[in-house]
Amino acid sequence: MMEKTELVTRLKEIAGEGNVFTGTETEPFLSEPRGRWTGKAAAVVRPGTTEEVAAILKIASETGTPVVPQGGNTGLVGGQIPDMSGTAVILSTARLNRIRDIDPDGNTITVEAGVVLQAVQEAADAHDRLFPLSLGSQGSCQIGGNLSTNAGGTGALAHGVARDLCLGLEVVLPTGEILDDLNKLKKDNTGYNLRNLFIGAEGTLGVITAAVLKLFPKPAGRATAFVALPSPAEALALFARARGEAGNGLTAFELMARIGVEFSVRHIEGVRDPLGEHHPWYVLMEISSGQSEEDARGKLEAVLEYGLEDGLVLDAAIAESYAQHADFWRLREGMSESQKPEGGSIKHDISVPVDSVPDFLAEADKAVLAIEPGSRICAFGHLGDGNIHYNISQPVGADRKVFLQLAEVITPAVHGIVRAHGGSISAEHGIGQMKRAELAETKQPVALDLMRRIKKAFDPAGIMNPGKVL
Ligand code: FAD
């Protein structure tokens, strides 16, 4: 490995003096928002072009220097944080922040990896188009990070996950070679789909530097309701009805347990309970229409009417203004943040087949409450994708540290139930450092072996984000 001072000198020659940080300047890049993982780095470098990324990776390959790509640093599994050895270089994509092209007729936008998700949404909106990827972290996370984690979010129901929204990629390989696959083609059957290997690879195969993303027509109308229900089983029946009524126009169907609504109301400024009364479960449902507001509203009302008649729906509020629509969403988006002041939380980001969600929830609740009876189970998420954030807050008054130690028994119990339903232990956040051991224990051996062979073929020197995923 190269001497640190020589490495820093060479990085400065490539990216410029002001774009290489060492010592205390690296601190903002060394931990993530939840404060769960902390690392050390020899340096942080912020390249401004694809060619600079290529030159950095070439040196890293030659010198065996580990490289940790970092986008908006909002990842929830520690993938963007280096280990404690202090040997790694963090490659921040913050300066790769240009929108290279927007083609409203062809419904594409070509952006560099460091463009913040919200900026892509805004650029699309300015051209009367929709970029449907939508996450609670959209003001900070970047497209490179979204693709590398194959992010999901609330828009996945109608438009798919990040992978489904990407037509082309530009990637720098660990050797410094540039793979230019920035095509705009819907149809391209010319061999293996290399792009899909980098999407969801969490920076272990190369650095994504730019992407061609799909845009969609902006809906002409949208109607949103906040709905109370007796249980997840009724929510599932209502989902089937809403899908039947609106098809792909059903643009959100977010399930929330009562306790999550209480947390959000208690801790997120300006959030209030739209229904006022205590109900066991809620759904935030949104229907969009290519035709008009009236069409969206008509469909939403038809679904609710059916739900009320059939006893699926206990009560519902329809947003009468954009402000009210935004209030409903703030309540839902505040659900992660509002768990923090409630003490320790053991979190799971799981998916099961959609029709298994009610059984999964019942079985997991039973298992968790048998282990720690006072646990407050704050389950919420994207019911229509079978993706539940199955989070468990500590009992009121419990010792945080002692409760968090229970993750050693609670998580295997929850994940065991997930697997019994044919589900996934990481629906949208990835593996990172957090679930690496569990991946090794649970992934089919043939699949794991293939992943290792792919890693070896792409990154023979093993410099790309070591200690993550595999
Ligand atoms: P980072 O955190 O910087 O990096 C994530 C991973 O990608 C790391 O392994 C990193 O090494 C790698 N990486 C980053 N950039 C590149 C690149 N250019 N090339 C190669 N590898 C790279 N996620 C969801 O899926 N759905 C949600 O609904 C959701 N909601 C969230 C809400 C909140 C409040 C928060 C804090 C997070 C949420 N997340 C969600 C998780 C997170 O925002 C996503 O994983 C996001 O895609 C990460 O993007 P980032 O730019 O912050 O990436």
UniProtKB/TrEMBL annotation:
Location of the FAD-binding PCMH-type domain: 37-218
Pfam families: FAD-oxidase_C, FAD_binding_4
Cofactor(s) required for function per UniProt: FAD
SUPFAM superfamilies in alphabetical order: FAD-binding/transporter-associated domain-like, FAD-linked oxidases, C-terminal domain
Keywords: FAD, Flavoprotein
InterPro entries hit by this protein: FAD-bd_oxidored_4_C (IPR004113), FAD-bd_PCMH (IPR016166), FAD-bd_PCMH-like_sf (IPR036318), FAD-bd_PCMH_sub1 (IPR016167), FAD-bd_PCMH_sub2 (IPR016169), FAD-linked_Oxase-like_C (IPR016164), FAD-oxidored/transferase_4 (IPR051264), Oxid_FAD_bind_N (IPR006094)
An annotated Gene Ontology molecular function: FAD binding
Biological process per Gene Ontology, one example term: respiratory electron transport chain
Name of the protein described by the UniProt record: FAD-binding oxidoreductase
